[in-house]
Design brief:
about 280 residues; mainly alpha; Arc Repressor Mutant, subunit A; two-stranded antiparallel sheet; 10 helices; 4 strands
């Protein structure tokens, strides 16, 4: 009986997983990734996650244990281990650093005038400068390295008189394909990580809420979307200012560090004729 219940639960989650994978597979096909390529990547991720999250008494897992947990052949596990870790973690840390620098530039009092990011010199003795901006975020990274990354991404430009200008339109705009993929990985990855923790934990640890309606006319959703964009932008700007102030206050404090990401999204599509509201909130 227990085995039958386990099989039924697995089948039910496979249906859930199929729905989650559909938009991701659409993206992979659009990017030219075929199934065999993704199979290889999936095996690597299975091995990495097993090693990171399923240790026993915090001891490294044996290849046999990883094979038992993941179904990946031990020969493939040895090959994956020999290749070493990928650069995903490093890429995400770099993206987080650049985002924090931009956030400081857009919110810290010494770097804005009337709510607008100032033009900054690279270095200055008697005024706010780019080097001070970067050092306020991370003292272990060279400001020139950060500047090169921001300029290569089109987020910062240099004026004729040598001042650095934050391209606010690029920051909030569509960006390049590389930028969109970086935000896709970070935003969807963190949302999925939060949802996973909420699903697996007895008490959901992360805030996760949504409002949803079906069978609304398009102009009604236009109205909702306009209101959502305005209110969400205000919330994000408020939290950015608060986080920037807290970051400056904790710059020299001892102790552990954490990161956070709060994201807001809205998705809309045509409703099927049989769609009904799952649960409409009380007015």
């Amino acid at each position: 009986m227990a085995r039958r219940e386990q099989t039924s639960a697995s089948d039910a989650f496979m249906r859930v997983l199929r729905g989650l994978l559909r938009p991701l597979v659409r993206t992979m096909i659009a990017r030219g990734l075929t199934a065999p390529v993704v199979y290889g990547l999936l095996k690597r991720v299975y091995v990495e996650v097993a090693e990171e999250s399923f240790r026993l008494d915090d001891k490294p897992l044996t290849d046999s244990r990883i094979a038992l947990l993941t179904g990946v052949h031990r020969k493939d596990i040895r090959t994956i281990k020999a290749e070493g870790p990928d650069e995903t973690g490093q890429s995400r840390r770099k993206s987080a650093l650049l985002a924090t620098v931009i956030g400081q530039w857009m919110s810290a009092p010494e770097f804005i005038t009337d709510g607008t990011p100032r033009l900054l010199p690279r270095q200055a003795d008697d005024a706010a400068d780019f080097e001070t901006l970067v050092r306020s975020v991370n003292r272990d990274v060279r400001p020139r390295t950060v500047l090169d990354e921001l300029m290569n991404a089109g987020l910062v430009s240099e004026t004729a008189d040598g001042l650095l200008e934050l391209q606010t339109e690029a920051v909030v705009g569509t960006g390049s394909a590389r930028d969109k993929e970086a935000f896709f990985a970070a935003n969807v990855g963190d949302h999925l990580a939060a949802a996973t923790e909420n699903l697996l934990a007895d008490t959901p640890p992360f805030f996760e809420r949504a409002v949803f309606y079906n069978q609304l006319p398009p102009d009604a959703i236009d109205e909702v979307e306009a209101a959502a964009r305005a209110k969400a932008q205000e919330l994000l700007e408020d939290l950015n200012r608060q986080s920037s102030a807290l970051h400056r206050a904790a710059q020299d404090a001892e102790g552990p560090r954490q990161r956070y990401r709060l994201g807001i999204y809205l998705y809309r599509e045509d409703a099927a004729a049989a769609d009904t509201d799952e649960k409409a909130p009380d007015p």
